[in-house]
């Protein structure tokens, strides 16, 4: 099948995962905020498909009564005569670029790895060779095939309390050009994690210092995964993470999974279910917002796969979680093939 590919810049940041070769085949995310305000120019022959994607994006951007992003959003049941439309939430999947090996080695998430040594080899490989948008090729040696089919995605922001500390150092060094500052930032993050308290927004600004503008567009303290979408295996792994010391993790997981099918879950409800304070580090891992989606639209001949991103609120824009901005950041168009 022949495909046409495209990409566009977010109005507030470019979080497109372009690959940039540096030296010995090193790859990193290119994050460049200097091209603000570009508008997407869809391909004329697929204008109707782009229009449907735009309609889905508008629905995703509508604030819900609970403030949470949930499967009950009308975007997930959107339809038009003559077209097939499907929406998949991506940011509650595992991003192998950022995955911390500690939770992998200390939970049942380890069953997604190809071997006992794979988490450690993954960590070293990311630090030595960088990260990649093409996770299927880049990380094929470290995860089982089922992981790529059902559990992994390259689309998520970096949560300062969750991301692997050595990946954090590598990315900060590449984006700031200051390796010494990146190493110091990693040490400060490690010390903060020992306190078992998550970063506040103000603490994050202080941590970034002179590099706040460069780093705040993709590193955040917003929760990594949405409780309304997170896979049961990942949910159970996070709740059973020894660092959280939850004695009733299985009961909490069962309660969440039983409740979320009938009504939206919010962080406040999650706090009540878990009987944990709002400052607990669990809520840096699991929240109620989503950040990336895949929208697939087709008719009898053509197909468009698009990635939508929610722009991350920072101190440099006027955005808020209650008024999200959803942008098209990547697409792939081609012939539609019936299954």
Task: Describe what you observe in this structure.
The strands form three sheets. Strands 1-9-8-7-2 form a five-stranded antiparallel β-sheet, with helices on one face. Strands 3-4 form a two-stranded parallel sheet. A two-stranded parallel sheet has the order 5-6. The longest helix has 16 residues, at 179-194. The protein starts with a strand and ends with a strand. It has 13 helices and nine strands. It has helices at residues 47-61, 101-105, 118-129, 135-138, 145-150, 165-176, 179-194, 201-208, 212-215, 232-239, 249-259, 267-274, 282-285; strands at residues 3-7, 84-89, 158-159, 219-220, 225-226, 286-287, 292-298, 302-310, 326-335. It is of the alpha/beta class. Residues 1-41 have low confidence and may be disordered. It folds into three domains: 3-92 and 290-335, no CATH class; 101-220, no CATH class; 225-285, no CATH class.
Q: Secondary-structure blueprint of this entry?
A:
Blueprint: E1 3-7, H1 47-61, E2 84-89, H2 101-105, H3 118-129, H4 135-138, H5 145-150, E3 158-159, H6 165-176, H7 179-194, H8 201-208, H9 212-215, E4 219-220, E5 225-226, H10 232-239, H11 249-259, H12 267-274, H13 282-285, E6 286-287, E7 292-298, E8 302-310, E9 326-335
Parallel strand pairs: 3-4, 5-6
Antiparallel strand pairs: 1-9, 2-7, 7-8, 8-9
Helix pairs in contact: 6-7, 10-11
Give the termini distance in whole angstroms. 14 Å
Largest sheet features: 5 strands, antiparallel
Structural class: alpha/beta
Strand order of the largest sheet: 1-9-8-7-2
Strand content: 5-15%
**Strand segment tally:** 9
Share of helix among residues? Answer: 25-40%
Global morphology: globular
Helix and strand pattern:
EHEHHHHEHHHHEEHHHHEEEE
Number of domains: 3
The averaged pLDDT comes out at 84
Q: Can you count the helices?
A: 13
């Amino acid at each position: 099948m022949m495909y046409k590919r495209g990409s566009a810049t977010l109005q507030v940041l470019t979080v497109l995962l372009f690959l940039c070769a540096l030296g010995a085949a090193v790859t990193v995310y290119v994050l460049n905020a200097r091209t603000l305000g570009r508008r997407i120019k869809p391909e004329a022959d697929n204008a109707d498909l782009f229009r449907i994607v735009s309609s889905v994006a508008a629905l995703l951007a509508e604030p819900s009564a609970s403030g949470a992003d949930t499967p009950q959003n009308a975007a997930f049941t959107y339809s038009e005569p003559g077209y097939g439309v499907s929406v998949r939430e991506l940011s509650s999947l595992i991003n192998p670029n950022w995955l911390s090996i500690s939770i992998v080695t200390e939970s049942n998430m380890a069953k997604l790895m190809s071997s006992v040594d794979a988490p450690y080899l993954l960590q070293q490989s990311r630090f030595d060779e960088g990260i990649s948008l093409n996770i299927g090729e880049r990380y094929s040696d470290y995860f089982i095939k089922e992981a790529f089919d059902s559990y992994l995605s390259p689309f998520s922001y970096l949560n300062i309390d969750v991301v692997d500390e050595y990946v954090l150092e590598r990315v900060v060094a590449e984006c700031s050009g200051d390796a010494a500052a990146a190493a110091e930032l990693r040490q400060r993050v490690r010390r903060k994690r020992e306190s078992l308290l998550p970063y506040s927004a103000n603490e994050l600004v202080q941590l970034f210092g002179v590099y706040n503008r460069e780093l705040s567009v993709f590193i955040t303290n917003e929760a990594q995964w949405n409780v309304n979408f997170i896979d049961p295996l990942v949910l159970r792994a996070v709740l059973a993470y020894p660092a959280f010391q939850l004695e009733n993790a299985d009961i909490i997981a069962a309660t969440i999974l039983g409740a979320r099918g009938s009504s939206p879950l919010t962080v406040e409800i999650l706090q009540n279910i878990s009987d944990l304070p709002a400052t607990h580090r669990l809520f840096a891992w699991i929240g109620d917002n989503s950040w990336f989606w895949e929208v697939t639209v087709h008719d009898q001949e053509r197909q468009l796969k698009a990635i939508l991103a929610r722009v991350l609120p920072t101190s440099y824009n006027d955005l808020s979680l209650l008024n999200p901005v959803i942008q098209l950041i990547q697409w792939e168009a081609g012939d539609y093939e019936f299954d």
